[in-house]
Design goal:
Blueprint (H helix, E strand, L loop, with lengths): L1 H18 L5 E11 H8 L2 H10 L3 E11 L2 E6 L18 E5 L4 E8 L2 E8 L4 E11 L2 E10 L3 E8 L17 E7 L4 E9 L15 E3 L1 H11 L5 H11 L1
Parallel strand pairs: 6-12
Antiparallel strand pairs: 1-2, 1-11, 2-3, 3-4, 4-5, 5-6, 7-8, 8-9, 9-10, 10-11
Length: about 240
Amino acid sequence: MLLLFLLVFIFTLKPKAQNTIFLSQGRIEFERRINLYAQIDDDADEAWRDLAKKTMPKFMTSYFDLEFNNDKTLYKPGRENPDNNKIWRQPADDNIVFTDLGKYHAISQKGIFGDYFLVNDSTRKIIWKITDETRNIAGFNCRRANGLIMDSVYIVGFYTDEIPVSGGPESFMGLPGMILGIAIPHEHITWFATKVFTDDVPVNSMIPPKKGIKATNKEMLAKLKDAMKDWGKWANRYIKAVML
């Protein structure tokens, strides 16, 4: 009877084990959503808010791909959204970010005012606090973590340990698994995975960007602040968006 009980117990557990797949390489599609109305409400006076809302969409939705292979990730623009109006293009619309997680190093190509910066620097240090809250994203069980970047910008991340790669969209990283969701409440921006593909991604196909004025994050930030010193509230939001 004991042997029979053990056999039943083992076969009951077996299907669950078979359904757990741990991915070390593949491709993730992220949907980035920006609430333009909320940003306008924060930064513009009443007359400008009403005029802007008549000519702009409430949300700007863009797609990006994140390729990953163990400790290497490459984030880049994905499929086009035909509903987007190029008049309302946002900072970081064509960012490319290559990250070597093992060496804590990143190379980013960022378009700013018609030019490109090639930022070669160490990866961002994010102060994370993992919580007990969970959420399913793109079919993966994720756990919530709250974080802080740029000294005072509050972020929310959702990561899954079913993809044992400590990366994520843009320059977000540092959790014990792949980040499949990011929200920055005060900036009204989110990134959430829509699909995870089990693509074969050779490391040598993940080529770091090469175009742009060479700089560190500190050097790029100094140039942005100098160029936008008369922009008022808009400068703050633009600079944060670029530095993400």
